[in-house]
Amino acid sequence: MSKVGVIPGPSLLSSLMWSLWPGRVINAGKSRHNEDQACCEVVYVEGRRSVSGAPREPSPSQQGLCFYYWGLFDGHAGGGAAEMASRLLHRHIREQLKDLVEILQDPSPPPLCLSSTPGTPGSSDPSHLVGPQSCWPSQKEVTHESLVVGAIENAFQLMDEQLAQERHGHHVEGGCCALVVVYLLGKVYVANAGDSRAIIVRNGEIIPMSREFTPETERQRLQLLGFLKPELLGGEFTHLEFPRRVQSKELGQRMLYRDQNMTGWAYKKIELEDLRFPLVCGEGKKARVMATIGVTRGLGDHNLKVCSSSLPIKPFLSCFPEVRVYDLTQYEHCPDDVLVLGTDGLWDVTSDCEVAATVDRVLSTYEPNDPSRYTALAQALVLGARGTPRDRGWRLPNNKLGSGDDISVFIIPLGGPGSYS
Amino acid sequence: MSKVGVIPGPSLLSSLMWSLWPGRVINAGKSRHNEDQACCEVVYVEGRRSVSGAPREPSPSQQGLCFYYWGLFDGHAGGGAAEMASRLLHRHIREQLKDLVEILQDPSPPPLCLSSTPGTPGSSDPSHLVGPQSCWPSQKEVTHESLVVGAIENAFQLMDEQLAQERHGHHVEGGCCALVVVYLLGKVYVANAGDSRAIIVRNGEIIPMSREFTPETERQRLQLLGFLKPELLGGEFTHLEFPRRVQSKELGQRMLYRDQNMTGWAYKKIELEDLRFPLVCGEGKKARVMATIGVTRGLGDHNLKVCSSSLPIKPFLSCFPEVRVYDLTQYEHCPDDVLVLGTDGLWDVTSDCEVAATVDRVLSTYEPNDPSRYTALAQALVLGARGTPRDRGWRLPNNKLGSGDDISVFIIPLGGPGSYS
């Protein structure tokens, strides 16, 4: 019914996860088992080799790197992808970081090119640098931070490829949204692919750390792909959006539409092709790609087809996360400052402000050094989103329906007594 | 050398434009003539016909619509496109609005479908509405505002098509960035395609009203297009980005790269294809698409080819603006509140904060009802960005080089004595 995980380590990084599988009564239309999966780990990254190719004695500070990791995986159409991703995604991140162990611990800018010849790292050898050219006056500066972002992005892609490869042998079904946090060298990286959400609540202020990827927020990306690759629409769908389904008797009339370039609406004369089902339709939680799926980024879904059709949906889904970075050292955090991760089961019925109010209400009733305060907060958020049985359903205090979805919440304290000592 | 235009109308909408063609000395590398063009007009839109198809007596309030219009067009590779767009874009907007005259003056929601049969407007006839369907539970609400946005978006596209058609007969050369403002029914619509910029300075606060479209800000859109349509790269370019030019002797080594999905960087092994010139290269003002052009949205450029090649660049450029809307009725503006439009000649050397400081400094030295205060402000901004001759060049007060580009500025006062009477 619930899971609580506490990572050993500084109080700064203690972490609590609460996942609630709602009762069957309010779980209508969902699977019988909680498709949310979670993972929190401390991961040690051993350097693959000296990046310069030169074998050398590792100094104590350059023997390896540690990162703290939290992941929420909200599965759909089967729990296989969420389960596999929760077990393996952090290992892909570790693999991607292996090449960077030495570079990330070296304060000088990362080398742009790594020589394969021992002893000749590309960018520190002047003969490898191109002089100013007409269209290429200088080399770009690449930060350590952007290497970690690139490592996480590529890890998501490799995880997705692994799900594609193993879906037959291991019967890995379905797909999942993935929201993960990597804490490495003083910075918090929040990577989101799907409709989960992360916010930081700091001194009562809300700092969004992710955005949701849905048919509505990614409409123009989806439409552009359908426009550039019409074969992906299989003659069944139109890349145009209409405010409602076009009917055949409306041929020749003029209806509002939007294409991949537009944010506004205009009228167009209805033609035969416009009678096809639209690639993107519906609003809010009911928005769908190809009348099938309500999220546009995530892992898995390699077998997903349009209902009663062999048309694959995967080409329209992206496995790439958006990664946001928060520098933990730029602000002195107090024990009430937290990073909250939640699946859409939480956010569908709880606003950012309501979460911030719950953070304040719950944490203020506990001593700052009482670690159970974060567990209590996670419980309060999950139970608050579920509601209580009343009036033929699970109801929130405002009498609206509670969440009928799986609900999972991570609370990651950002500060605490002694956390910066 | 300079132009000042004042629109007749309420003090609210008096407008001042200052355009400065820099002296030849500091115009190195630019054309000998100012390629910036500007336009400000009051445009009357006559309804095309009753949208319902039914002929009826127009009420006095529904005879037509008026909009105020300001446009800045920053030309490149010839002034033809900028000149033609400055003369015609507002007419395309007028044409697009003609269908909407009646709808925009009707407070009820816009009809989703317009019947071609007289007397049967689509959405007010219940038989035209689709009932709830499994994937299409309801119809979308479309606002009046989004119809105006759509009209402006389509007007940009039609203007671009006209430039394509007339480029031979009328020798319309080059392309232009376009930044236009439409004031209609209490709302300010700011549409930007290119690297000009609009900000509102309100009570000293800066409200950005546009963003710039450059090879850097649109990198991922450009790379995605090159990835999905590799034929557009002509075997000469790679859609991957590298931090500097790859050299053939680096084949087999590992270099940092980014693809269309990444915001971070990662290492990849250099292969033969990576030796091609990158689709996007350079940084800041020196960033280029296909080593040729530094803006990625605008009008024209239909003949633009990669240097020493027949490869067209136009497929990578977008003629669509981003439109932002500001509701003028939601705030009581004072005479010091202004909308500032400027070409990149202004913004390259002047920050938003410096512009806001100049707004405050100049306007406070004039009486609030002195209309010449806005002219003085436009002059101060243009001359401030140009600098003064000193130390073998035109220098700013901080001794940096002044702008060597054409500089054009519009000041649009948002409030004033009696403007809301």
Automatic annotation (TrEMBL), chains A, B:
PROSITE patterns: PPM_2. SMART domains: PP2Cc. Residues 48-414 form the PPM-type phosphatase domain. InterPro entries: PP2C, PPM-type-like_dom_sf, PPM-type_phosphatase-like_dom. SUPFAM superfamilies: PP2C-like. Gene3D superfamilies: PPM-type phosphatase domain. Residues 113-127 have a biased composition (Low complexity). GO terms for molecular function: [pyruvate dehydrogenase (acetyl-transferring)]-phosphatase activity. Residues 113-135 are annotated as: Disordered. One of its GO terms (cellular component) is mitochondrion. This is Protein phosphatase, Mg2+/Mn2+ dependent 1J. It comes from Myotis myotis (Greater mouse-eared bat).
